[in-house]
Every structure is written in C-alpha cells, then in structure tokens.
Amino acid sequence: MDDGSRKFTIIGIAVILLIMAVSGAVGVVKIYNKANEREEHKVTTSNKAVESLCLHTDYRKSCRKSLANANDTDEPQELMKIAFSSAINEIEHAINKSSTLQAVAKDPRATQALEMCKSLLTTSIDDLKRSLKKLDNFDISKMEEYLADLKVWLSGSLTYQETCLEGFTNTTGDVGEKMKKILKLGGKLTSNSLAMVNSVDEYLGEVQLTSMGSRRLLDKGLNDDHHAYAWWTKGYKRLLIDVDWKALKPNVIVAQDGSGTFKTIMEAIKKVPNNNTQPFIIRIKQGVYKEYVDIPRLVNNVIFIGEGHNRTRIIGNKSYDEGEATFYTATVAVNGDGFMAKGIGFENTAGPMKHQAVALRISGDMAIIHNCAMYGYQDTLYAHAYRQFYRQCTITGTVDFVFGNAAAVFQDCKMIVRKPSLNNECVVTAQGRKDRSSQGGLILQNCTITGDHDYLATNPRPITYLGRPWKLYSRTIIMQSFIDGIIAPQGWAPWAGTFGLDTCYYGEFNNRGPGSNTTHRVRWKGIKKITPEEAARYTPGKYIQGDLWIKATGVPYTSGMMNV
At the fourth CATH level, which superfamily is domain 398-547? Predict the structure, then answer.
C-alpha cells in the first residue's frame, strides 16, 4: 500500500468513527438523571480509550465523568455518543431548573433573564441536535463542509448558553449565581464536544486531506440541493445586484402608503412558513418603519430588499436602560438561517445615554448583509452567532458598537464613530469568544474606521480604541483597512483590569492611514503579529467557507486577500 492509499484509509476510518460517534446520539440512554449521581460515577471504561478522547478537551474531569456509564466499552464511537448526549441532557436539566428558580425570583430583571434562558437554551439544544443530524448522510467528498458546520453550530450552542447567563448582569439576589452553577456542567460538556470535533479536523489537516481531492466539494457544493443557498442556482442568482424591481418578483411588497401587500414588515414575516427552503423575497418600499421586526428560528431564507439605507429605514428605541435585556433591544432580530438584506437602514434611536441599544441582531447562520446601514450608539450591531458576511455596509456607534461571537467578516465596510455622552471613550469592537475552541471572531477587511462630523468637531476629541476583550478568548483581526487618526496609539483597551489580556487574539495586518501605526500599541500577550499566511486563514473563503454559500448569490465578494 502506498503512502497516499494509507493516508486515505486512515482518514476513512477516522470519518466513519466520527459519523458513528455523533449520529443518533440523542437516543442514547440518559446520563446524570439524579444530582447525587453526578459526583459519584467512576470511570468503568478503558482508561486508555477515555484518556485518548478526553485529551483534547479543556474539562477532562467532566469528560471522564460523562463517559462513566459507557459499559466498559473502548469504542470511540460509543464514547462520543455518550459525550454528546450528556451535553444535551444537562442543558435540558438547566431548562427544568430555571422554572423552579423563576418561582422564587424577586428582581424583575432576573425573572426576565430566566424566561429568556428557556428560549436560548432550547436553541442551544437545537444546535447540538442539528449537529448530530448533519452526519446522518455523511459523504467524504463533503467532509470539509460537514466539519465546518459542526464547529459553527457547536460554537453557537455555547454562545446561546453564555447569552443566557449574560441576562443576569446587574440583577439582585442569588438567582443568577444559581443559574450559573446549574448550567456549568452543560457548558463544559458542550465545550468538550466542540473540542472533540476540532481535534478530528486538526488530525485530518495533519494528513493533508485537501491534497487528496476533498476540495471537490467546492465544485459540487453550490449545486447540491441540500445546501442552504442551492436555490440561487435555480433562477435567483445575482438577485441582489440586479435592482430591476419588476424582475425581482417578490413574494410580498411592504408599503406604508397601501400600494403593497402589507403596510408593516411583521405582517410579511408571518407569511413565511417554518423550515422554508425557498427564497421568500420581501420588497420594502421607501419609508420609515417604526416597528420591531423579529424573524423567528426556523423561518429561513428571508430576503429584505429596500430602496437604499437612507430611503428604507426600520427604527426602534428599546434600550437596556429602560429595562430590556440587551438581546431583546434589537430593532430587527434575525433568528432564521439564510437571511439576506440589501438597501435597508436598521436604526436604534435610544441615544448615547441609554446604554445598550441594538439596531440589528443576527442570530442565524449564513447571513449576508449588503449595502445596508446600522445606526446606533452603544451595541449597534450584535453579530451574535454563526457565520455572517457584511459587504459595503456602514455601522455607526460609540461603545462596543460591533460586538458578539459570530464568525463575521466585514468587507469594504465603514465603521463610523459618533460623539459619545459626556466625552466618554469610544470602542469600535467587543468580540465575545469565551471558549478557545469557538469559531467566533470579528474580521475587518478593507474597511474604513473613522469618525462622523460631530465626533471630529469635539474638542477635546474623545479617545477611541479598536476593540476590547469582552470575553476571555476575544478575537478580532483588522487587515487591509484604513484606520483614521482618531484611534489611540495604544490601539486596544482593557475590559477590566488584566482580564483577557493574555488570552485574547488581536491582530492588525497591512493596514493604512494615520491610525495604523502599531509602534505604540499595547504589548499584551494577546496582541499578535499576523503573518500573510495567518491573515489568509481569516479571509471569508477560508474562515466562513464563503465560496460555498456567498459566491453563488452574486453579492460582491472577495474570497481571499483584496486588491487595495
């Protein structure tokens, strides 16, 4: 057997094990049914098999305990079935416990947070389950795509758990701490599941899978009927570029003057069926729409076509200061996959004194935002989870105005700093990656970072930073971009004390402009010197697999490094 054949056989075995390991895990016997059983299990499986599987995880003790009921098996597929099933069962346990806590909660914000947790944790479980389902019909030629989906969705599951806990910030009483303890094991087991998948991907990379033809999926993927954007190849391609409204044939038209199908956007959203597999095109005519738009989970492939972000605007003013959780302050909230928007303005007018006030929140996978604008102050754009692509967009704000834990790439966008309240400092990004295996990161490529007229006219001018570490493994990369002189020489700001300074991943590569000089940047361990090879890893073709789902839409898109 030659080396190439041997490598292929090893890969085939590894993939088969992974398929067998993950698929069908939901039906496995439940673990941890009683609280006192959680701490008393002893590992009865082969120590060697368990140690090998748990080696790549951050929570090895929890990993071993989750495999304690493996009935002495040393089969990797059986061990991973139990590991995945344990994560699901623990999160279900947390949901049940949240109802008990809600009955004794006295702080209205804590009560709201508990109610929010039920929804968020249900979505977290859904991400685990769809990760399992993804492998039911595994095809080795699509392995790169499959592993990418698994990593993104498992990262999403972790993000939803963390968002649940964030709801207890600034609440009184001990309900928040109790919920944190209840969810702690579920978070560890989900993290372990993600680490296991990452270790498989790393192993396959070591044997140079891509050199043996697996890249065929790049040629096939756009035409596979199962793929999220397969419908673009069936008559809708280049829809967002060709702005001939008569040719678009929208499913519905929203117009305030009564000339369309509906007068409000939410009326149109209610017409989209669950698990929608075809594009549902909503043309939104010129006007200021003062309403809150929420696209539910499983309401997929919704497309907003406006008449320009200065002509078609959706406006709200919910804020944390007035009692809303940050997650629920969004003027427009997108929870379904495959969302697209062109020519829309998303705005939150709460103002700089109202603290967190989101204009647009994206919580759906494979979202594309083209030629849109997000207007706000603190927390303007919540790039919450999964894969997102922004092209030729404008985002305005003051503090952390691009934030979240999505794997999000911004190409040719403008980040415009606004005048803050009381001459406070401004921060462009606050990335929220809590787990080192998570796929989240904010990537700014060929973007412009500058200030608006009022900000530039302020004397003395408020200090502005590129970003700060919201979570422990915060990751932001700014490359090939224009950075104006408004950015402080230090570049990056701490969140609180030394939190995240050693574990964050912040990099700048081939930027230009008066604020791009890195000579006086902070010297944290988390500040990285990005090589060309490292920068290329974060281009959309590689980082968010954009060739498989962005290219076919006809949206302006550069897969790799841009010509600037």
Answer: Single-stranded right-handed beta-helix, Pectin lyase-like (2.160.20.10)
Tokens of 119: 């929804």
Contact 189, 66 (CB under 8 A): yes
CATH 2.160.20.10 segments of the chain: 228-274+282-361, 398-547
At 37, which amino acid appears?
Answer: E
| Helix (H), strand (E) at residue 558 | none
CATH class of 228-274+282-361: mainly beta
Superfamily of 3-218 according to CATH = Invertase/pectin methylesterase inhibitor family protein (1.20.140.40)
Residue ranges in 143-255 assigned as alpha helix (H): 143-166, 175-206, 216-220, 245-248
Q: What is the CA angle 10-85-199, rounded to 5?
A: 35
Question: CB of 419 within 8 A of CB of 454?
Answer: yes
Going by DSSP bridges, is the β-strand pair 332-334/293-295 parallel, antiparallel, or unpaired? parallel
CA distance 301 to 282: 11
- Judge contact between 253 and 283, C-beta under 8 A: yes
| Residue reference for tokens 């592993």 | 147
Q: Check residue 238 and give its pLDDT.
A: 53
Q: How many angstroms separate the CA atoms of 439 and 441, rounded? A: 7
**Would you please indicate which residues are annotated as catalytic (active-site) residues?**
379, 400
DSSP assignment of 38-99 equals HTT----S-HHHHHHHHTT-S-HHHHHHHTTTSTT---HHHHHHHHHHHHHHHHHHHHHHHH
Strand partners, 304: 282, 341
Alpha carbons 164 and 447: distance in angstroms, whole number: 32
Q: Is the pLDDT of residue 60 over 80?
A: yes
Q: How far apart, in Å, do the first and last CA atoms of the chain sit? A: 48
pLDDT for the residue 103: 80
Q: Can you read off the two tokens belonging to residue 142? A: 């699509």
Predicted local confidence at residue 48, as pLDDT: 75
Q: Count Cβ neighbours within 10 Å for each residue of 418-451 and write b for 16 or more, e otherwise.
A: bbbeeeeebbbbbbbbbbebbbbbbbbbbbbbbb
Distances (CA, A) of 442 to 195, 296, 416, 522, 544: 21, 24, 16, 19, 11
Specify the 3-state DSSP secondary structure of 392. coil
* Least confident stretch, 97-106, 365-374, 394-403, 510-519: 97-106
- Bond into 279 cis (ω within 30): no
CA gap 290, 529 in Å, rounded: 45
* Helix (H) or strand (E) run with residue 389 in it: strand 387-391
